[in-house]
């Protein structure tokens, strides 16, 4: 059984520079995530990648009453994983925000193509520790980490592999503090590898 898994959150074109909802320096999370994913897969660990996978009409978007511009619409280039992201063979994809009524911030709200929740996948693989990186610190990373803690996982947030939206200047810092208070540990990807 695999006790450690890596969750890569929403490293999609629309959240990277040039995208519809670009996170500043969003593409800089890719090199550390690629290195960690390759090493973890080599060790037999589980790698998962979540993605926003919105319908064109959803209450998540501003034109239908939500907070955000149109982004990550199913089967569009913006919803694709960034081309620089190297997902190992066997990576499990979790799609979230797929309905017209759900925001889908947390990867724990999403499902695999065969309908399993993230929690079901992790439990089936005997995962106890979850390493989390990706986009964005103050939204989907935060929501996924808090849900993982609620589900009883040990969670490590990869500080060199996250970037935030920061609608308010300190949003990402506040999110990190909230995750820590809830029980998450903060580590760089290299420290997380050494801790295996």
Provide the descriptors you would attach to this structure in a database record:
about 200 residues; single chain; alpha/beta; 6-stranded parallel β-sheet; about 20% strand
According to DSSP, the number of beta strands is 6
Number of helices: 5
- Main β-sheet description: 6 strands, parallel
Total individual domains:
1
Secondary-structure arrangement, i.e. CATH architecture: 3-Layer(aba) Sandwich
pLDDT < 50 runs, ≥5 residues: none
Helix content: 25-40%
Percent in strands: 15-25%
Amino- and carboxy-terminal Cα gap: 15 Å
- General shape: globular
- Name the helix and strand elements from N-terminus to C-terminus, one letter apiece: EHEEHEHEHEH
Name of the CATH homologous superfamily? Isochorismatase-like
CATH C-level label = Alpha Beta
- Sheet with most strands: strand arrangement: 3-2-1-4-5-6
Structural category is alpha/beta
Roughly what is the average pLDDT, rounded to an integer? 96
Q: Provide the gyration radius in Å.
A: 15 Å
Q: And the CATH topology?
A: Rossmann fold
Structural write-up:
Helix 3 (137-150) packs parallel to helix 4 (171-182). This protein is an alpha/beta fold and 196 residues long. Helix content is 27%, strand content 19%. The protein has one domain: Isochorismatase-like (Rossmann fold). The protein has 5 helices and 6 strands. The chain is globular and about 45 Å long. It has a 6-stranded parallel sheet, with helices on both faces. 48% of the residues are buried. The two termini are 15 Å apart. The model has no long low-confidence stretch (mean pLDDT 96).
């Amino acid at each position: 059984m695999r006790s450690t898994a890596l969750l890569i959150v929403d490293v999609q074109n629309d959240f990277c520079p040039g995208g519809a909802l670009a996170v500043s320096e969003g593409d800089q999370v890719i090199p550390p995530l690629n290195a960690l994913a390759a090493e973890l897969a080599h060790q037999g660990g589980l790698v998962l990648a979540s993605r926003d996978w919105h319908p064109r009409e959803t209450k998540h978007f501003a034109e239908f009453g939500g907070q955000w511009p149109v982004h990550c619409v199913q089967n569009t280039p913006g919803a694709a994983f960034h081309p620089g992201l190297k997902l190992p063979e066997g990576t499990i994809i979790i799609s979230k925000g797929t309905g017209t009524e759900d925001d889908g911030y947390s990867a724990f709200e999403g499902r695999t193509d065969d309908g399993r929740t993230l929690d079901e996948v992790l439990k089936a693989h005997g995962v106890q520790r979850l390493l989390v990186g990706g986009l964005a610190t103050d939204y989907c990373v935060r929501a996924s980490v808090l849900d993982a803690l609620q589900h009883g996982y040990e969670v490590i947030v990869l500080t060199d592999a996250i970037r935030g939206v920061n609608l308010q200047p300190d949003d990402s810092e506040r999110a990190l503090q909230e995750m820590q208070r809830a029980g998450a540990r903060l580590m760089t990807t290299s420290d997380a590898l050494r801790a295996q």
